[in-house]
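can u do me a favor
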């Protein structure tokens, strides 16, 4: 018996592997990415979904913030986020592919955590500190995504796409730094005083 003949039946003995073969599971969809370009399109579609979700979440985060500088940072980044979506549209226009129907599950979870903060923490500096933490987690996810996309674009020779993706990457990094500074400058010090003033 050859190696393949020994291995093949095992896949069907595993009920999860079997289910993955007969349903349109994420795993099966993932297996449609055969080339680096397929993977690039998948990642770009994922981050497009992430940005769309953020255009709905950022106004809520801005409204939930107490520190006006924090609210302003979220509102300003909402504008940038809209521009980032336009950049992805530009990449698609200039290229010979379409986006896939992908929902970024990671951003869905990060946004959900942001909602929990708003519901569970009373308005004030402690909530602001939690909002900053939620915001920075979002930016770090985006930094990882756009960093990867820049590398893929470079390897694929997609020069214009790479230029546009780098612009967005710079905005995500700047936002992360701005949120970090707000935490250092004011918010966390105010948050640390809550509960101690007696
Ligand atoms: Fe973004
Ligand atoms: Fe994602
Ligand atoms: Fe961002």
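np, heres the sequence
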């Amino acid at each position: 018996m050859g190696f393949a003949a020994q291995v093949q039946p095992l896949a069907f003995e595993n009920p999860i592997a079997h289910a993955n073969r007969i349903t349109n599971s994420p795993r099966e969809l993932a297996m449609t990415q055969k080339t680096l370009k397929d993977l690039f399109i998948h990642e770009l579609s994922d981050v497009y979904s992430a940005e769309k979700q953020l255009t709905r979440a950022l106004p809520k985060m801005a409204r939930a913030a107490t520190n006006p500088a924090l609210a302003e940072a979220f509102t300003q980044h909402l504008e940038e986020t809209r521009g980032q979506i336009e950049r992805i549209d530009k990449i698609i226009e200039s290229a010979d592919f379409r986006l896939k129907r992908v929902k970024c599950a990671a951003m869905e979870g990060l946004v959900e955590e942001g909602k929990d903060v708003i519901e569970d923490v009373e308005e004030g500096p402690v909530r602001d500190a939690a909002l900053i933490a939620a915001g920075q987690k979002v930016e770090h996810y985006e930094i990882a995504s756009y960093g990867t996309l820049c590398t893929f674009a470079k390897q694929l020779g997609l020069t214009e796409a790479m230029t546009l993706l780098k612009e967005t990457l710079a905005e995500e990094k700047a936002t992360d730094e701005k949120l970090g500074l707000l935490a250092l400058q004011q918010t966390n010090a105010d948050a640390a005083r809550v509960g101690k003033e007696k």
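The CA atoms of residues 129 and 184 lie 10 Å apart. hope that helps!!
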